[in-house]
Structure formats: structure tokens, C-alpha cells
Amino acid sequence: MSMEIPYTVEVRPDTGLTNGKLGIWLFLASEVMLFGALFASYVMLRVGAPEWPRGSTYLNIPLATLNTVILISSSVTMVLAWASLVKRDFPRFRLFMGITILCGLGFLLVKYFEYTAKFHHGYFPATNTFLAIYFTLTGLHGLHVIGGMAVNGYLWGPGSALWKTDPTHFTNRVENAGLFWHLVDLVWIFLFPILYLL
Amino acid sequence: MSESHDPQDAQAGHGDVDRHVRAAYFVFGSLLVLTGFTVAVYFLHLPTRAAIALRS
């Protein structure tokens, strides 16, 4: 026996949103608080430290710039994937969602090279406060990228079966996944200058 | 991204979607330019005050 979950397609009159969208916004609010707390910790650690290294002492700025370009590009392809569904063009959705997933993979690959280079040089979270907050913030962000890719991968693959039975519901799911992906992008937009450039 | 994607409303929704796509391109372009500018300023090795003034 299956039960229909209400307000997955039509907007709920009291909130003005579908349940899924309200849920994702609440989740994003909790994410903002999580990263906000970590950014505040970074500020406290930095202003309390007698000296603070320049990012380039430990970090590779050209690689991080490349990662920034990859991630902001993936936000555009995510929007294009959603727009394709609204225009009822499923193959185009597949293409752009696939590119978004590949961008996520590219980001993680670059991050892998960055991390391994640091470990080779003997730089670990325990080395100093800067590296501790660097690994904490970028590691948590990397986990979010993996999470977003898992959701996007599901929507690209097995989850896309919903398109045939309930296209509007599927489009809403992609939209919600897109909102999360934009947050992941936004967090990196803050992380990059704070850790690497300032 | 818009609230409703009802396929029944597809025709009316397309204009709305195109606006969102244009906004996404604008944000993408702005971020690209600002990222390039910020990185360029970093490599100029300016004194602290000048660097803050340029980046803000």
C-alpha cells in the first residue's frame, strides 16, 4: 500500500512553497549556520594568532583558481539542466546534468592533487592552526561536493525514471538539488579568498 | 529558479525560465571577472591598505 505525499507538485497554500522546497530551504539555513560557525571560528583564530601565513606559503593558488572556475561553471550547467526540464527537453537535461557531475568530479580531482601535495610536504592538520582550519573547512566543503554529486548522480541515473510518470515532481527535485549545489558553490566563493588570498 | 514548472503552463513558463538562465549567465560572468580581478590583485603584492581598498 502506498501513500501519496502531498504538495510535491502543487504549492502549499499556507507556505506558498512545495514541501520539498520548504525542506531544502530549511536545510540550507542549517548549512549556513554550520559554515557560519566555522567561518567565525576562522576569524577568531586568525585575529588571536600572533602571526598568520600568507595562503601561498602552503596553498596552490592557480589550482584553487581553476577549481573556482570549475565550480561556478557547474552552477550554470545546473541551471541549464533544470531549464531543459521545464522546456521538456530530457536529453538536454541529461547532457547538462552530466556536465555538472563531471565538474564536481574535476573539482574533487584537483582537491585530491592539492591534498596529496600537502601531505608529501609534511603539511597536516596538526602542523599549525592555519592548516587545521584549512583542512577542516575544505574537507567539510569537499564532503558537501560529494553529497551533491551523489544526489545529482541519482537524478541523472535511476532517479530520472520519475520523469516518465511525474515530470513536474522530477523537475522540482532537480530544482531543489540545484539549490543545494548553488550553496556548495557559494561556500567555495567565500572559502577561496579567505583561505588562499587574504 | 521559479516556483512552478507545470507542463500545462509550459508556454508561459519558458519566458520565466529564460530570465533565470540569463541571470545565471550574468552571475557566472560577474564571478569569473571578479575572481580574475581578485587573484590578479593578490599577485600584485600591494601594501595591506591598498590591497583592501582594491578588493573591497
Describe, in short, the structure shown.
Chain A has 198 residues and is mostly helical. Chain A has seven helices and no strands.
Q: Which architecture of the domain at 61-197 in chain A does the CATH hierarchy give at level 2?
A: Up-down Bundle
Report the structural category of chain A.
mainly alpha
Structural class by SSE content of chain B: mainly alpha
Distance between the termini of chain B: 29 Å
Helix and strand element order of chain B = HH
What's the count of strands of chain A?
0
Largest sheet of chain A: none
In terms of quaternary structure, the protein is heterodimer
Structure description:
The complex is a heterodimer of chains A (198) and B (56). Chain A is mostly helical. Chain A has a domain at 61-197: Four Helix Bundle (Hemerythrin (Met), subunit A). Chain A has helices at residues 19-48, 55-58, 61-86, 90-120, 129-156, 162-165, 167-197. In chain A, α1 (19-48) packs parallel to α7 (167-197). The longest helix of chain A has 31 residues, at 90-120. Chain A is elongated, with a radius of gyration of 19 Å. The termini of chain A are far apart. Chain B is mostly helical and 56 residues long. Chain B has a domain at 31-56. Residues 1-8 of chain B have low confidence and may be disordered.
Which helices and strands, and how do they pair?
The complex is a heterodimer of chains A (198) and B (56).
Chain A: H1 19-48, H2 55-58, H3 61-86, H4 90-120, H5 129-156, H6 162-165, H7 167-197
Chain B: H1 10-43, H2 48-55
List keywords for this structure.
A: 198 residues; mainly alpha; 0% strand; elongated; B: 56 residues; 75% helix; disordered N terminus
